[in-house]
Amino acid sequence: MTTPQPAITVEAFRETAARIEAEVSKVIVGQKSVLRHVLIGLIAGGHVLLEGVPGLGKTMLVRTLADALTLHFSRIQFTPDLMPADIVGTDILEEDDQGNRSFRFQPGPVFANLVLADEINRATPKTQSALLEAMQERRVTVSKTTYPLPAPFFVLATQNPIEMEGTYPLPEAQLDRFMFKLNVGFPAADELSEILNRTTRQFEPQADPAADGPTILAMGELARGIPIASHVNDYAVRLLLATHPENELAPAAVKRFVRYGASPRGAQAMILGAKISVLLGGRYNVSFEDLQAMAFPALRHRIILNFEGEAEGITTDDVIGEIVKRISP
Predict the structure, then answer these.
(1) CATH 1.10.8.80 fits domain 226-326
(2) What is 10-217's CATH topology?
């Protein structure tokens, strides 16, 4: 298990983040915003859900990030026949040379620093729930025994938004464990051309290590120490309350199209993400605009639309945009 280094300076924080992004960009073309938010989630110690159609490099992004970090990487391919024990591990019966039998815990692939949950919505809810304790408490319980997970522990999950056959939508409790949900878009024409140039050659580029576990943990500790003004903190509270249709702050669009609003974890994700974002940008104070920018990745998977909202084709991003517009700083 890794332990954090004693301290890291703001300059080293920015330099390390820049190195990580530069190494990942050797392989991944474009997707600057996605990469930045994944890095923010990593520094924050949160988990990120990547949603996009097949072939956009979601899995490659995670693999490249693992190459750029000296962390133990593990991939779990979620399928309908995957069982919880296939993720967290199980007790196996062993017999020694004297014929004595005893149980030994065999850790599953979740015992890693960076875990790729590929196509997470293809597993049954029973199997998906195996990640709940791991993602929230950084530990797993098997046969009444609790085992701590290594630190840092980071889950990057992917899912396909268009292929619904044979999938199981993530329950709200599972979605709420993710700090961010990121939409991976289709590349532009020039980016697509560069992708073809890089991937059709004899040798493909590789990312070199740029940071390790203790450094990532130290970066997270530094970011958490960034102060936030009380009125900016209150603005995050009001943004969150405005996602609840029964609250007096809720705009008309929320009252009409939303069934359930975001949990307190949404405000935590906004504030912590904003703190890391301002450090990456060379600033030392969180502004209203920083919270507004973080509202989309932090809240889009925590807002549950009602039947009317789904029938009208409303997206949670539409709702968040209306909240940001109506709730003044």
Answers:
(1) yes
(2) Rossmann fold (3.40.50)
pLDDT beyond 90 at 55: no
| Strand residues in the chain grouped as ranges (E) | 48-51, 69-70, 73-77, 89-95, 101-107, 114-118, 139-142, 145-148, 154-159, 180-183, 211-212, 258-260, 304-305
- Would you say the C-alpha torsion 137, 138, 143, 145 has a positive or negative sign? negative
Q: pLDDT for 92-119, tens place per residue?
A: 887 777 777 777 788 889 999 999 998 8
pLDDT grade for 164, boundaries at 50, 70 and 90: low
Residues 123-159 pLDDT 10s: 888 888 888 888 888 998 888 888 999 989 999 999 8
Return the domain boundaries, the chain.
Answer: 10-217, 226-326
Output helix, strand, coil percentages for the chain, rounded to the nearest 5.
45, 15, 40
